[in-house]
Amino acid sequence: MKSVHEKLNEILPRMIEMSEDIYRHPELGFKEFRSRGKAIEALDKAGIPHQDAAYTGITACLDSGKPGPNIGLIAEFDAVPTLGHPYANEGDYAAHTCGHYAQLGVMMSLFLAIKESGMLEDLCGKVTLLVTPGEEFCDMDYRKSLIAEGKLHHPSGKQEMIATGVFDDIDIMLSCHAMGLDMTRYHAEIGAGLNGFIQKRAIFTGKAAHAGANPEDGINALNAANLAMTGINFLRETFRADDAIRVHFIMQEGGQTVNTIPSRTQLEMYVRAKTVKAILETNRKVDRALRAGAFAIGCDLEIQDTPGYFPLHQDENLTELVKKHILDYMEPKLIAQGTHGFASGDMGDISLMWPTVEIGVAGFSGSTHGKDFKTADPEQAYCVPAHYFADTVEELLADNGAAAWKIKEAFQPVMSRKDYLDTLDSLNKSTIYKKENDVL
């Protein structure tokens, strides 16, 4: 293990440089072409073959040549629209305000160090690098266009990789992410849960008329959307605190011109909660409010539901194994354990079917998804997690993979891949309510 840590110390500076360059050149999901090129350049330089996956994603595998478990190292590298960030793109406002660029640095450093140190010579099994695109659930019209063109089947990178079998031979999933806690107080977050969500788009269609001359001849779709939002807000007192519910929306289209009664408006929203049951229950309430707003004003309504991500539940046994190695790099008081976050990620979908950890890491400053997000401490953001994940991989692949097999045997999948994909399909729907037919 001394050799792999020495190699990490040698490799990390250039991988940090690569990742910070990606930070300064952000790209939204399934548009990570430049970032992908940087990752491929690093793999090619190390002589590691790689494959395409999920349109802009990459996979690569190191094989010990001996039977054993396959350990997946998951990284993301997409950005998120953030107005006002110093490196935000013109046009789509893409900016790295969620730390995905650093995930790539951590896992790529570890993967290269395993290769260059010859670590697997004394171990068994495989280590697979999985660079997954499109984690941020945004820019949906573009993603739907890729689906329409047959380039994707699903709007998330990990959903696509699940559907196309990329993860089928992986046994254990390791990942990390910038934590949402106070990074001056904690340096690692383990065993955290995350909400799941459904994404919704509500399209209200009314009737245009001159807003000054004859507004009475119009049907105001903006008024319908406003009533719907008010209805949702009045429902908030019915949301149980234990369900960790969040319903939040933006108005994508508020009308066509101020001098015309708006004939079409569009709301986009997430319905988030801690459990699938709570998501579906809240989703039904939101649908009622949307329909009520349309019905009151006399608008047609289309509700488009797109399945987002499932709640994240990290494997307890794998968490404890990783924690043991984290404790070699920090004091117990710096580790937060068993928290729940109201955000969501597609690692939740992974956790349904594979033993999974996603360690929250420190080393960043500013607000997540805020214009001031950046790396503050490269040692914490990159170096420390790369080293404790190296120790983790070593234990998982030692003794013929005994620790990994024990974790996998104890793991109880929530659903099979087929059931998962069938569930996604069932949640992906569009429902139209015509004003002449809609009776509440």
Give the tags.
alpha/beta; Aminopeptidase; Alpha-Beta Plaits; 2 domains; eight-stranded mixed sheet; elongated
Write a structural description.
- This protein folds into 2 domains: 2-195 and 311-421, Aminopeptidase (3-Layer(aba) Sandwich); 196-308, Alpha-Beta Plaits (2-Layer Sandwich).
- The radius of gyration is 23 Å and the shape is elongated.
- The protein is an alpha/beta fold.
- A hairpin with an 8-residue loop joins strand 17 and strand 18.
- It is 37% helix and 22% strand.
- The chain has an 8-stranded mixed sheet, sandwiched between helices. Strands 11-12-10-13-19 form a 5-stranded antiparallel sheet. A two-stranded antiparallel sheet has the order 4-5.
- The longest helix is centred in the N-terminal third of the chain and has 23 residues, at 2-24.
Describe the oligomeric state of these chains in a short phrase.
Answer: single chain
Shape: elongated
Predict the CATH topology of the largest domain: Aminopeptidase
Cα-atom radius of gyration: 23 Å
Q: Architecture of the largest domain in CATH?
A: 3-Layer(aba) Sandwich
Instruction: Classify the secondary structure makeup into a structural class.
Output: alpha/beta
What is the number of domains?
2
Unreliable residue stretches = none
**Strand arrangement across the biggest beta sheet:** 1-2-6-3-7-16-8-14
Main β-sheet: number of strands, strand sense, barrel status? 8 strands, mixed
Helical percent range?
A: 25-40%
Beta strand %? 15-25%
User: What's the β-strand tally?
Assistant: 19
Number of helical segments with 4 or more residues:
12
Distance between the termini: 66 Å
What number is the mean pLDDT? 97
CATH class of the largest domain: Alpha Beta
